[in-house]
Structure prediction request, 204 residues.
Amino acid sequence: MKKAPTKFSCQCGTVQGQIDNVTPRSSNHLTCHCKYCSGFAVHLGQADRLVDDSGANDLLQVAPWSIRFTSGQDSVKALQFSEKGPLRWYASCCNTPLGGTLSRRFPPFCVLVMENLTFPNGGPGPVIFNAFCDQIAEKERCSKSGKLAALRLLARLASQAVRGGVSGNWRDNPFLDLAGGRAMADVKTLSPEQGESAFAALLH
Ligand SMILES: [Zn+2]
Ligand SMILES: [Zn+2]
Prediction:
């Protein structure tokens, strides 16, 4: 029997999609404390919902080719903190952060915002890595992951990249256009002032 897919949705329900069979093996459950993840949530007015008291953003890293939009793709937009930075995707209908990708398709990488996901069974299991603990003011609030956890995560990401490379699946990224791997939506780059004002809000 085919397993029911994991679903995701923006807050207003316009943007919806699904992810194949999320399990602890097929996904990496992470938290990220970097100022960009939190600043992205602040910029969209979503920090109260998405950044917890320890400064953590709850994220799920999955293979890009396992993700599919089922509606509202036209409302999916991206922004960047700088022109060379990763792409941070959101649903423009209701300013819901959706996740992030690199600006090109290889190596294949995608994280999704956990808050938008519903798991029909099981799901990804507990957090396996807390990233960028050193970027929050009260560092003791974050339990920093050790070197072994970092190596394990890198090995899992490398294995995903190899599997995607060998199978050709790396070309299949719903966030990025197939023609040349460019972002499918217009990407807005925040001004340095917009970035700084989002980061400043994190300190209060
Ligand atoms: Zn929406
Ligand atoms: Zn981050």
About this structure: The pocket of zinc ion (ligand 1) is lined by residues 10-12, 14-15, 91, 93-94, 96 (CB under 6 Å).
